[in-house]
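Bumping with the actual sequence this time:
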Amino acid sequence: MQNFAHAAFPPDAVAAMTSALHAALATLPEPVHSAHVNILAESILRTAKSGERDTGVLKRIALMELQLTGRA
């Protein structure tokens, strides 16, 4: 996972990121691999760090990035 050691998010952003990750994971077929979780989480962190807070947008971007990696 990329270095997000200095990233800080307010509680509402953390809630949006958590919801987006859970929603994205729910769309994946079983078994969900840890690599998929890492890609989704990194994408959500990166997108939220840029200021996005909409759960749906965070989810869609993460799933698109997962597709682009060819690991979906």
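The tokens above came from a reply further down the thread. The chain has one domain: 11-69.
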